[in-house]
Fold:
Amino acid sequence: MSTIDQTAGRLPASPVAPTRGVAAHRRRYVLACGAISVVALAVAFAALCHGTTWSSPGETFAGILGRGDKAFVISEWRAPRVLAALVFGAALGLAGAVFQNLTRNPLGSPDIIGLDAGAWTGALLVITLASATPALLAVGSVTTGVATALVVYALSRQQGFSGLRLVVIGIAVNAMIVALNQWIILRSDLDVAIAATAWSAGSLNGLDWSEVLLPFGVVAVLAVGLALCSRTMHQAALGDEVAVTTGVRLGRHRLVMVLLGVGCTATVTAVAGPIVFVALAAPQIGRRLTRSAGVPLAAAAVTGALVLVASDLLAQTLAKPIVLPVGVITTALGGLYLIWLLVKEVKR
Structure:
């Protein structure tokens, strides 16, 4: 009887209960991520079926295996674009999760705080001042993206790091960089300006294997790095005092996370141009679908892949035979999401 809570007339809470709760949460999280991944793969298969004309599922499956009349079209033309949508969407989702965890703010997204615009500046300089080879575009985008992140991070550390200060400073830096990018385009030759403006919409059109294999490898390395930092990231999300108590070196942790997040968004920008709003929306949608308390990386990655591959399929079909840049679709959908998010934040 000593173990019975006499006052309440029931057994005291068992230490096993929290463990079961955590296990149930993990099981629900894994199932939700698995369901999102299955939907993303189904949409990707539909995108593989889509071309000038729709291919049947049987023809598409045979093409994936290298058989049939459409094997070359499916494996060499459609597959790079569809895989790019999945991988780049996952990279943008990861980047958004990184910065939303750092700032503890749903508006703390790379495209809101100027990192996409910063990476675009490097690509613009390469396009206007040198030959725009894929390697130079990547170097230019990553360099200016990292430089922008370091400037925003350094300014936000005045009198101690603040997530809200980082978002506000990032919005200001983003406005200045966008103005600089517009000035660069206005000063360029007409042909270069037209090409730069078209590329700035964010597009997966015309990608082939030679353009995406290296970025796929870079995104894989960055994803592994983020996975290794995920435990520390969750500790830091509990608050600075708790994180320091558990041995987290916050300054170094934040710098590493910033570099990994910028690497994800700059890699995508170097290949496809700035594709906005995926990094903003995917982490929050993934968090709600998995009913997670924080902003988990895996949920953000699979949701980002689903959002981008679905947006790219819409871009190919909505105005057919005209193929829209996928950035047009993500901007339209993301704008609606941003309005909903701001209204919700104001009501809180």
